[in-house]
């Protein structure tokens, strides 16, 4: 599924423009944290004036754009996604990240996964008492996760004001992660317990289609997923307005990736449990797409409206109708360490499927 490598943590027409109640924001530049240029050229700000306010833009769209065609592209107001420069990384920060990750996984195992000490099995047993139908239990688990996950995301601004950005991220992850693990494990353990609707696993080309679809789906991970130091609250978490890379194809890549993942797994498994899981997950991510636009409109105001006009929810729609202009060397926005890491991890997850299935089965959830 999309919240991790099997989750692991965005199809239709764009939602109605959101009109924030808060005071109107003037269009401001959205710059990433200062970093050393990755090659000979980098993003350079330039300025121009309008009647009511000064707009600050980024003049380049990706790495190494020096050709004349790039000068014709509209200037960016958002951030360059998936940019990663080893030269700017702090070893201390990554040591903190490793320590935090180890502590989180240890607590998750003791408090939730281990059946002798954790509450994960008790939670699954409690939900399972609601119905003898695996389909209904699957939908309820997704509904619980979606309500908590999207609910905490919706009140993020208020929560961060009360607790601070880092403590709220810890709360958000600490509640969402166990529920995500429970939902994934239940799906793995009961994926073949439903009513068989079709059987295409032996059909010519189906395995290759499903494999390729799953592989592609992980390239639609939301760019903020790559900010591991922010995810772990080592760096202060921010809500970014991304505009390059996968965002040029679709404004809600996590939703799109989840839809691809669901369709591929439903085609392969072909039963009622897979259909129920797909309905729940796609519904959650459709709501997340609407909610994400709403929150970005409140936070970034006019800058988000600019990005919204030249992007689309349906993949490639803005490109095909001319609202999105791709740089000539657009491919360079993907030749970056985060996408290389996703490639390696996705291949690893595929080959480790038997290990994941065995580990889930041992939990007896």
Automatic annotation (TrEMBL):
Its main location: membrane. It comes from the Eukaryota. It is found in: Membrane. It holds the Pfam family NnrU. Coiled coil: none annotated. Keywords: Isomerase, Membrane, Transmembrane, Transmembrane helix. GO terms for biological process: carotene biosynthetic process. The keyword Phosphoprotein does not apply. InterPro entries: NnrU_dom. GO terms for cellular component: chloroplast; membrane. Residues 137-356 form the NnrU domain. It is a multi-pass membrane protein. This is 15-cis-zeta-carotene isomerase.
């Amino acid at each position: 599924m999309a919240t991790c490598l099997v989750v692991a943590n965005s199809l239709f027409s764009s939602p109605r423009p959101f009109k924030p109640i808060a005071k109107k924001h003037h269009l401001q530049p959205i710059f990433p944290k200062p970093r050393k240029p990755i090659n000979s050229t980098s993003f350079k700000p330039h300025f121009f004036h309008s009647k009511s306010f000064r707009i600050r833009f980024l003049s380049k769209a990706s790495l190494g754009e020096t050709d004349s065609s790039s000068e014709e592209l509209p200037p960016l107001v958002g951030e360059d996604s998936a940019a990663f420069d080893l030269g700017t990384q702090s070893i201390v920060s990554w040591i903190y990240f490793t320590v935090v990750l180890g502590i989180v996984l240890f607590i998750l195992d003791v408090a939730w996964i281990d059946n002798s000490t954790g509450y994960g099995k008790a939670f699954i047993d409690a939900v399972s008492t609601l119905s003898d139908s695996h389909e209904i239990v699957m939908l309820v688990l997704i509904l619980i996760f979606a309500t908590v996950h999207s609910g905490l995301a919706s009140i993020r601004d208020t929560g961060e004001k009360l607790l601070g950005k880092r403590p709220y991220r810890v709360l958000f992850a600490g509640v969402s992660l166990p529920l995500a693990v429970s939902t994934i494990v239940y799906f793995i353990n009961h994926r073949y317990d439903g009513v068989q609707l079709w059987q295409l696993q032996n059909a010519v080309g189906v395995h290759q289609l499903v494999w390729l679809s799953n592989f592609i789906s992980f390239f639609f991970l939301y760019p903020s997923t790559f900010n591991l130091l922010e995810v772990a609250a080592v760096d202060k978490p921010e809500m970014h307005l991304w505009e390059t890379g996968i965002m040029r194809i679709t404004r809600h890549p996590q939703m799109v990736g989840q839809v691809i993942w669901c369709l591929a797994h439903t085609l392969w498994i072909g039963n009622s449990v897979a259909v129920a899981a797909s309905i729940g997950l796609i519904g959650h991510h459709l709501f997340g797409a609407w909610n994400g636009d709403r929150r970005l409109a409140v936070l970034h105001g006019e800058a988000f409206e600019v990005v919204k006009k030249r992007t689309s929810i349906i993949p490639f729609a803005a490109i095909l109708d001319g609202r999105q202009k791709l740089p000539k060397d657009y491919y360079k926005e993907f030749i970056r360490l985060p996408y290389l890491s996703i490639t390696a991890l996705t291949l690893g997850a595929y080959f480790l499927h038997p290990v994941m299935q065995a580990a889930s089965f041992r939990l007896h959830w």
